[in-house]
Each structure stands twice: as C-alpha cells, then as structure tokens.
Records
---
Amino acid sequence: MNPVLTRLGGYPLAAFQDLAREMRAQPEPTYDFSIGDPVEPTPPFIRRALIDALDPVSQYPTAAGIPELRQAIAGWVGRRFGVAVDPDTQVLPSSGSKEAIFHTPLALLDAGSSRRHAIWGAPGYQPYERGALFAGGESDAVDLSPERGWRLELDALGEARLDRAFIAWLNYPHNPTGAVVDEAYLRAQLATARAHGVVLGSDECYVEIHPPSGPRPPSLLQAADGDLSGVLVYFSLSKRSGMTGYRCGAVVGDPALIAAQRIMRPNIGTGSPEFVQRAAVAAWSDDDHVAERREVFEEKRRIVLAFLDEVGLRTGGSEATFYLWVAAPGGDDVAYAQALLARRIIASPGSAFGPAGTGWLRLALVPDAEGCAAAVDVWRTAIAEGALPGG
Ligand SMILES: Cc1ncc(COP(=O)(O)O)c(C=O)c1O
C-alpha cells in the first residue's frame, strides 16, 4: 500500500459521520447542513445542452477540451473580472476543480528538489495537502485565525518556510469559514509568492456565490494586473451553476504553468466527456441563472442568520459561499454537533477541517428554504428545552 495512505489515516470524525449516515437513511425528516452539495436543480437549458450533444458515436475527449469550451471560459472571465485571457494558452478545462487542484503538483513538483512543500491555510480543503503528498511533496498547513479574518498571510511565514515551498494555495471565498478578501490582500500575497519563486494557486470555486447585494469577491486574475506569471486560478461550475455531478471546472493562468499541465493531464485521463463540455459551454455563457441561484441561497441565508442572531449564536466569516461558520457555545464543536444530531440536524464540526477549526460549526445551506425554516424551529425548541445551549 502507498505509505501516504497509511500516513493520512482514517477520517478524524468517522464515528460522527457514521451516525449522520444512519440518520439520513431513516424515514424521519433530517436537516442535513453537512455536505456542500446543494439540491437545487441544474437549470433546464444546461441539461438540454447536454442531451442535444449526445452523439451516436462516442470518442475520447482531449485534455485540452473543445475550443468552444475554452472560449466560453475566457468569455466568462472577461465578463466577470474584466480580464482578457487567451483561451488557447491560458485556459484549461478540468473535471471539476478538485481533481485539477489535486493533480497540479504532478505537473509542478520536482520531488527531488528542495522545494517540495505546499502551503495552505487550515481549516481548509484537503486536496491542497493531499495532492502534494501523493506527488511526493510535503504539506505545510498554516493555522488561520478569527483575529486575522481567516486570512493566510504569506509574508508572516518567514523566508525559510517560503523558500522550501513550490506552491501556496489561497481559497477565498473560503471553505469552511465563508471569509472573503479584497484585491489588495490578493496583490500582497502575489508579491510575496513571486519574491520567493512560489507559484500562487487560488481556488475560487465560490467566487460567484455571494450575497446578491454585497460586493463581488475579487479574483487573483484581477490582482495580477495583466501579468499572470506564477498564477494559477481554479474555477468551477459545481456551485456556480448547480452542476456538482457534471464535473466541470477550469484552470486559468500563467501560460507556462498551463502548458505543463496540458502535457501532464493526458496521462491521467481526466478529460470531461464532450457532451458534458457542451453543457459547460452553455453554463459558462450565461450569467442570469447564477444570479437566480444567488437569490435562492440568500433566502436560506437570511432565515438561518436571523435565527442565529435571535438565539445569540455568533458567526465568524460567513460573508460569501453558502456556508455559515458558527461559534459553538462552550467551544466544543463535536459535542454541539452531536447534540444537534440528536435533533436530526446535521452540521459539520469545525475540527473536521483541521484542529484550527475547533470550536466552530460549518452549516452548508443545502436544505431548501422550507427545510432551513423547519430546522431552525427544531433548533429553537431544543434550546428552549435546555437540550442545547444558545449563545
Ligand atoms: C474549497 C473547494 N475547492 C474545490 C472544491 C471542488 O469542487 P468541484 O471539484 O466540484 O469543482 C470544493 C468542493 O466542495 C471546495 O469546497
């Protein structure tokens, strides 16, 4: 067995997850806020595009994707961020952003060199760490804190730590905290990464999921001011267009780094089927359905935030994404999540995302608005009965 698997071990909260799984299988209503996989249907015009593209003859897709898809991605980048990118040299489609993030070290890491570390912020998304480990590198997790707004500050790490890194990962809007950053922050991280020869990977799969009336989260592409050297940005249709099951993402950035991945990726076989790529063209080319989805998440967000406020439960981050990051009263996130589970409400304990998440709960706004309203009623009753502390 690969020793990396042994080293990673089991999931830290396996017992909690087993219980949650049992609960989902039971007939009684369960309010599941634990998995970031929303249930709103994929817009009909996207499904139609997939069906219309189902050819009688099925052939292998290419790693570079169909030109129309790369153009559609570049078109969206232009509309959304005002940044012009070359669809042939600066854009690469992927089968969702997870695999692209995980596989990136296979293209960029020289496992025999002194630069083998991947820097990432914890609590955070595991593929930043795991991609590096499976490619023969090392993980350098940096604890994020509420005092610093859950921001990963590269210049605070010191020379030695930066000089042994081959990549540093940012992820704003951030999973699990929902924290956001501004363009000045991104610009500062890019300057530090460049000064130390570190590639800056920015996972922006939630960049379209923000309160409709709030500021639109910026992209590292904007902060790069026309020079994409050392920059890789990861996008996804999963959350933007309700397409988690389609597996559609994109990598945009430095032509040399894109070229390396374009050479590496045919070895894996991650090209999306062409009918999926055609659906992705439709999705990237339309912005109206995304605005509608934002309204749907906003309604759910308002319901849950109003309740948290009413019972005195404090949130951190929670500025964008469809996650709310709630301080567990008493500081024991696992105990609070277990008590919620007893009322059939499933929330993720923050410690599931790394020790720095201890004391927090992540609520993914996945149930529909009715489900959110019903869940907060159950939660309110549990607090009134003394089964759960309020804030
Ligand atoms: C921070 C982050 N990045 C990337 C992904 C992967 O998304 P996908 O592979 O569906 O594009 C997720 C999924 O939940 C995520 O939370």
Note: The chain has two domains: 3-42+289-384, 55-285.
---
Amino acid sequence: MSAHTPREPSHLRSALQPREPRRPRRIAHFDLDSFFVAVERALDPSLIGKPVLVGHAGARGVVASASYEARKFGCHSAQPMAQALRLCPQAVVVMSGHDVYGKYSRQFHDILNQTSPVVESVGVDEAYVDLTGTGPEVGGAYAAAQDVRRRVREELGLVVSACIAGSRTVAKVGSDRAKPDGLLEVPVGQDAAFLAPLPIRDLPLVGPRLGEALQAVGVRTIGDAADLDARWLAAQFGKAGEALAQHARGIDHTPVRAGGREHRQISRENTFGQDVTEVEELRRVLQQHADRVGGDLRRQGRRARTVSIKVRWSDFTTLSRSRTLDRPVQATAAIVETARDLLDEVVRTEGLRPVRLLGVAVSNLVEDQVQLSLDDLGSGVAGATAADGSARPRVLRDEELDRAIDGLRARFGDRSVTRGL
Ligand SMILES: [Mg+2]
C-alpha cells in the first residue's frame, strides 16, 4: 500500500462513521386536574372542599365543570345548571370567565414551551410534549415532567397529571390513570403490556358506539382487542378498526406537532337565546359563522379541506357532520355552501327539532397556495361566459369579493359589511 493511500473526502468520512443509536420516543401528555374548578379555587381558596359548579347560573346555563364533591350528587359537565342545582342545592356556582381561564391556560402552555420545543396544545388544559430530546444528562423525560408539575403548582397553584410513554395514545391513556396529581412513566417497550389489562373504553378512539360493538364480540380489555386479527378488525370496523388494531398494540406513530389546536381548527358557534325551529334562521346563522371562519382563514393565510357543522337540539343531543373537499377552500361562499348542504343532510336524516346551538368549523388546514383546477377555470377555459356575463372563474370572483369585504371590515369594523343571502 503506498504512503499516499487516498482518503475519503471528509463529508464521506463523517457519513461512514457509526451513527448514534436513535433515542426511543418519549411522548408526554399533560392534563390539568379539574381545570375550571381548580382555577376558581386558586382564586378563592374558601371554595376548597365545597361542591362547586362552574357555569352560568341563568335559566339556560350549563355546567362547564363540576367538582368531585358535586359529582357525588350526580352533577356533571354539560348538564343544565338548573338540574345540577336540584341535585345539589348547596353547590356554589361560579364563572370567572374566559379571560381568566385563558390567562391560566397560557401560563400553563408557557411552562411547557420552556420545557421542549415540540408542544402540541389540544385544549385549554391539555397538551402533548415530545420529550425525546430530553436526554439522561439532564435527568431524562421523567425529571423534566416532574419539573413541569412543580412549576405549575408553585406558579399557578394548579395540579397537572401526566404520563410519559412511547406514543401519544399511550401517554393519553396513562395521564388519565395518573389522576389525581400523578406522574406515570411507561418504560420503553412496555406500551402494549401497560395497555393490555385496561378497559377497551380507555382508548381515546373507542367511543360509545364502537365500545358497544366491541363488547358485543367479547372484547372487554385493550389486550382483548390486541389479540384480534388486524384484518378482521379492519373488515368489521373500517378505518376505526385499522387504527384500533394498531393502538391496542401500543403502536401510534402520530407525531407531536408544534403549535397545536389553534392551528388545526377554526370554528364559530352560538347558543340561541331561544331554541330555533326555522330552517331559514339556521341558514342565516350558518352564513354568519362561515363568514367569520373564512375571515380567520384568510387572515392566517390558510385554506381548509374539511368543513363541519355542529347542531345541538334542545334536549342537548349534539351531532356534527363534516365533509372533506377535493380542494382546500378559503372563500366564504364555498364554506357556506358546504355548511348548508350538511345542514340539509341533518334535517333530511334526523328531522328538524328545536335547535339550541349551531356551529361551523373548518379543519385539515393547509398553507395558502392558490390551487385552481381545471374545474374552476371550467367555462372560462372553454371560452364560455358565466351567468353574469363575466368569463372569470367563480372561485376567483368569490375570493376577490372576500378580500374587498375583509378590507372594509379591517378599516371600519366587523359590523360594517353584511353579506346578503
Ligand atoms: Mg383536564
């Protein structure tokens, strides 16, 4: 071998060096214990130990949250306040308001954001945090989570429970198990074993209907579901069955996405002062909501693939319908059109009952890029003209109108421009 053995260029050499083994995923789910009640007690310690109902006391008030002491009497969230007070007349009714809860929620998220760069908020009081990068040199994920719990207690006077595991699903199941005031870590590789003895309904994706269907075929625990053939589950329950086969075995590769809920859905809803039974009125309100939602999308430079509506009947049954579109939309007109279709579908399949609450949401958000397909250009390309004599594609005209209205509202206020039906 000559003295001048050619050496690999430096970039190749570094690529050839053995890689550091990949660290196992460590995902934490943090969930504040009885958030609304806890905030009220942090503000007024005389409420500690008493039955507390958070919500508006008025005739149409609804319980947003009930303390453990009140739950013993049968009170629970989403219950009409009047009914809760009949069950537990000695309960204290409080409602500090969204500004106050929002402030606590932001402080909670600030602490999480100082712990890891990858925090995904999934509600005012819960978030996923990727702690994979929190290596042993700083005590690892467990020490990081303990530190969050200590800070939340000291700085906010609230209690947060948490679980660290190999995936979001397992961390979420575990944080429920950790309550009250607990921290659980599922050791690396033990996710499936941890889940196996737990009731099937503990899995977030198993709602009441799927739960019943699974019970009917003898599935009681998550382990029972893990023992079933994945193809059989998929054949029986479609997409939910496919996901169930994975989750029951502790497999869930869904990443924690920095940012979280505020980026994933935009919605508007209202509770009517009096239940509404007129379809025309519902359509009018849908349009207002869709208009606001569209305005938010345009301000954020985003488009949405999925449009949903939410309807709550006077008996509190709540249903939602959604539709995923071929192309992401941003124009108010497109959101209104889909929302109205969905409302028609509800009326057709469920009949029309007195409506208490109505909402519109968009999700599946993508960054704004004008994506015109040949459909949009349609008649324009063919050289024909639209009904109003213009050859412009309809989507473009809708968006120009939206831009003009958004501009006026930015200058003269939200109520300066109202759209016709
Ligand atoms: Mg909570």
Note: The CA atoms of residues 154 and 235 lie 51 Å apart.
